[in-house]
Amino acid sequence: MDADLVETRKAEKPSIQSLARAFSILECIGQSPGGIQLSELSKAVELNNSTAFHLVKTMVQLGYVRQDDKSKKYHIGRPMFLLAAAALNDIELYNIVSPILHDLARDTGETSHFAVWSGTNVAIMARKESTSPLRLSEGLGTMRPAYATAVGKVLLSHLEPDQLESYFEDVTLESHTAATITDSQRLVAELRKVRENGIAFDDAELFAEVRCAAVPVVDFRNNLIGAIGISGPVWRLSISELQDKQAILRSAAERVSEALGAPALQ
User: Which of 52, 76, 100 delimits the end of a domain?
Assistant: First the structure.
């Protein structure tokens, strides 16, 4: 084995071990409603007092654990509750979107999906498959390049100029099909149209056999939350046919937005 690789693995082991121990400590504290003292904690996670103390001290400094001044017991800190709340928000959003995607797939006859940002990519957070035997099947959480997808173009179209500039610095516009837009100026021009028209299209730009359309979903502050879209095979779904279905697509997006507190459109 390469000597450098051996040294790298040796260097990584303590960090990985410390991370595992830290999570064990968090889980133990989380399962102690009345709090837990260091001696009990170290015994529960099978660490000596010194090791447990240094790990939990770091978590206290970061705020993920707090220590009661009087009892000296450790409790879960506020940031952990915020992380849990964020996860619950995602679950609630999924619960709101799912039945609407079901109706959208039924009414359009195409696969419906809801996507959100995940770094520089978009992640499929919820979807409902078309009843057609010919469809693109993707798992939840699937990552797709924003610039080559309809849902991604919706999200990109709402970025501020400096944010879009940073995006282009971080992402290489690689070709996935002959139709993929790999020129940043051309993409910016298309994103401008997406923002103006409130709808984006993927004209076989990620998969040669698939076309998509997507529209934005906003919350009560009119902030963009994600994008809802439909997709289908190119032989069945032309851009013209996608445009014909946009009223149904927009109606679904409005239902999700209204459920998130956005005012109903007149």
Answer: 76
Query: Residue 160 to residues 123, 167, 191: CA-CA distances in angstroms?
Result: 21, 10, 12
Element (H, E) at 232: strand 224-233
**Rounded Cα–Cα distance for residues 74 and 35 (Å):** 5
Structure tokens at 173: 């516009």
Q: Which residues, at least 6 apart from 243, have a Cβ–Cβ distance to it below 8 Å?
A: 213
**Residues 6+ away with beta carbon under 8 Å from 263:** 220
Question: 58, 76, 94 — which closes off a domain?
Answer: 76
Q: Are 191 and 153 in contact (CB under 8 A)?
A: yes
Q: What is the pTM of this model?
A: 0.69
Q: Is the pLDDT of residue 185 over 90?
A: yes
Q: Which two tokens stand for residue 145?
A: 């390049």
Show the domain range for 254: 85-259
